[in-house]
Amino acid sequence: MKRVLIVDDELKVAAAIQSGLAERGIAAETCYRGDEVLERVARQPFDGLVLDIMLPGCDGLSVLRQLRSRGDNTPVLLLTARGDIEDRVEGLENGADDYLIKPFAMAELVARLGALARRRGGASKQVITHADIIMNLRTRQVSREKQELFLSPREFSVLECLMRTPGRVHTRIELLQQVWGYQFDPGTNVVDVAMKRLRNKLDLGFARPFIRSVRGVGYALEDPT
Question: CATH homologous superfamily for 3-123?
Fold first, then answer.
């Protein structure tokens, strides 16, 4: 997983999970209220949710049911208290992918998220296409008009973000979070530099450019239609 939303009203717990994931190269955002989760997920998709059951505003099980009812299949790891057996069963029956009992070891949480990612990855598409652009997620190869493009790991990750949601404008801070793992703007132009290099490889020399700059906002991949 590259990007995770942590939902827990215990600020120290949320901060500890966020720090632990960051050490392992996983960008994580935090949310402390259940009634804010749906808006956050709708605004920006995540690869996984770490969801506590006891939350202000809306409990975790209600959040889970609403996510699944609207067709959102984001992997969810529930955090539960040791004695909440009924909640764990209800969570799994309502679409949770796994659960972890508090208190827990950070290594186990990371391992469970990794297992969810592998499980979901096995069922997901390994090849993404956009017009004449083909991206193989397993081999990490990219081609356009059957010409192989040699991208750096950062360029590959940036292009993957754009190709997963064509037409959607990704802000610079979103790309910093998803690709570089920053939770803040470092005040550098790393996104613009990477995008310039990617554009030179993806668009230069081809009849139609696909990467679109939105001044003052970010970047998008033009819809092929």
Answer: Response regulator (3.40.50.2300)
pLDDT digits (tens, 9 = 90+) for 133-187: 999 877 889 999 999 999 988 898 899 889 888 888 988 888 887 787 776 677 7
Q: Which residue's structure tokens are 């609403």?
A: 66
Class of domain 127-221 as given by CATH: mainly alpha
pLDDT, mean of each 10-residue run, the chain (225 residues): 91 92 89 92 87 94 89 87 77 86 89 81 69 86 93 89 87 83 74 94 93 91 80
Give span(s): CATH 1.10.10.10, the chain: 127-221
pTM of the entire structure? 0.56
> What is the CB neighbour count within 10 angstroms for residue 212?
15
Residues of the chain with CATH 3.40.50.2300: 3-123
